Amino acid sequence: MRERNLIKVSAGRLRRGDTDWARVDALTDEDIERAIAEDPDAAPILDEEWFRNAELVIPTKTATSMRVDSDVMDWFKSQGRGWQTRMNAVLRAYAKAQGGVK
With contact defined as beta carbons under 8 Å apart, do 33 and 45 qualify? Predict the structure, then answer.
């Protein structure tokens, strides 16, 4: 990162935020579980059965050298940090659509 892109803030100048921490502290476990159950975007609560059936998958990465059009490479890099991960995701999506990977 370039120095001009960094913003330095001392701990004494941090904004407090709008969170009502007293309300959060007052929530019971049942309140939290009910809110999760009612949220259509929430992931399911992971139970013992899920962990028994879970399989650890550690992806492996292979270092490679390939020729890519300059404008394509520039575009991915312009997206900021994580551009290689995003480029890999695009390649994976294509390979998956072609039936080449899971």
Answer: yes
